[in-house]
Design a protein that fits this description.
single chain; Substrate Binding Domain Of Dnak, Chain:A, Domain 2; 2 strands; FCH_dom
Length: 365
């Protein structure tokens, strides 16, 4: 219904009791709202206290682990606090903790402001309004007596009583609304403060530079390194052994079969490596795309798929390297005599025990 700007006193003449009842209902609402904000203040203080404890624990734990996180457990270079402050990851974590600490204080500030500017003010309005209602009633009684006594009834009903009725109700609602608006202003200001804390922490997280942090760790952990020497042949103490590979007829056939088997495995491995390398290239591009636009899907799933494919590729390539090394050693020993490379030239033979073929592991009889 559209507002018409009607006056209580002029539209509802001589209805002080009814307006007083409405006034009491509004006082009841003010009391409910005051209690609501009083409990909100208690919650804000409780939340702030728990958030402060959480941030303090995190800060204490960070103080104990920062050095090992940034420089490792046994850095080789002398370091100080300035070195730790160069870590972008630790700086981001420190800002997250600081954001929580400051946010806790923001909640305390909000609680203090609400208690002072909302709860206490509403309580004051209740008290003063009760006093006003009593004074209005007394004044109405006095004016009625005066009106009867001096025959000013018309002025009483047309001016004095309407003014008192308007004063009783309209002023109360206006003051109540002003307090509620102030409460919303406090909360908006509080949310802006929290947003600022979160934004600042977000900026610090965005500045994390893994390469820079890696360089910092490397710079404080450089140690002399000499690659271990190659393994050498160690002869058996109870047998006559040498480091030379025997190429007598019997062992030569064995290593020729070994050579054929290695080459066969390399042929099987080559298409697997090609396919897996293509798969790794595909996931590399997907990881980059998902990292820049998280709306494309689950980044962790793509990263796990990339790591799994890369691990399989590493395994295949390691196997290839081992087989090539075997082929190289065997070729050097055979000195060009690779045999017919047709290992299965069957002939009738008898063995005292089952003997496996050096190429296909099938037992001869």
């Amino acid at each position: 219904m559209a507002s018409t700007g009607q006056s209580y006193g002029k539209t509802l003449p001589d209805q002080v009791d009814r307006i007083a009842d409405l006034f009491d209902a509004h006082l009841g609402l003010i009391s409910d709202v005051r209690e609501l904000y009083r409990e909100r203040v208690a919650l804000e203080r409780d939340y702030a206290s728990k958030l402060q404890i959480l941030a303090r624990k995190a800060s204490e734990k960070r103080a104990k682990t920062t050095a090992s996180l940034v420089l490792g457990n046994e850095p080789t270079k002398v370091w100080d606090e300035n070195a730790l402050r160069q870590s972008t990851l630790d700086n981001a974590y420190a800002q997250i903790i600081a954001s929580m600490t400051l946010s806790a204080q923001d909640h305390v500030n909000l609680a203090d402001a609400m208690a002072l500017q909302v709860v206490d003010v509403l309580k004051s309005i209740e008290r003063k309004s009760e006093d006003t209602k009593k004074k209005v009633r007394l004044e109405v009684i006095y004016l009625i007596s005066t009106a009867i006594a001096n025959a000013t009834k018309r002025k009483f009903y047309s001016e004095d009583l309407p003014s008192l009725e308007d004063e009783l109700q309209t002023r109360l609602v206006t003051r109540f609304v002003n307090v509620l608006l102030q409460a919303q202003t406090l909360q908006i200001r509080h949310h802006d403060m929290l947003k600022g804390r979160t934004t600042f922490a977000e900026t610090s997280i965005g500045k994390v530079d893994p390469v820079r942090d890696q360089d910092l760790f490397i710079d404080h952990n450089i140690r002399p390194f000499v690659a271990p020497g190659d393994w050498t042949f160690e002869p058996c103490s109870s047998h006559y052994d040498t480091g030379e590979m025997s190429v007598d007829p019997a062992p030569k056939i064995f290593i020729q079969n070994k050579l054929a088997k290695c080459r066969s495995k390399l042929q099987e491995l080559d298409p697997l490596i090609v396919a897996k390398r293509q798969e790794v290239d595909k996931y590399t591009k997907l990881v980059a795309a998902y990292a820049s636009d998280r709306s494309l899907g689950d980044f962790d799933d793509i990263m796990n798929s990339y790591l799994e494919s890369n691990q399989q590729l590493t395994f295949f390539m390691s196997s290839e390297h081992i087989l090539n090394a075997e082929v190289e050693v065997i070729l050097q020993a055979l000195n060009g005599d690779e045999g017919s490379q047709k290992p299965h030239s069957f002939k009738s033979s008898s063995f005292s025990i089952p003997t496996q073929c050096g190429y296909c592991k099938v037992c001869g009889m």
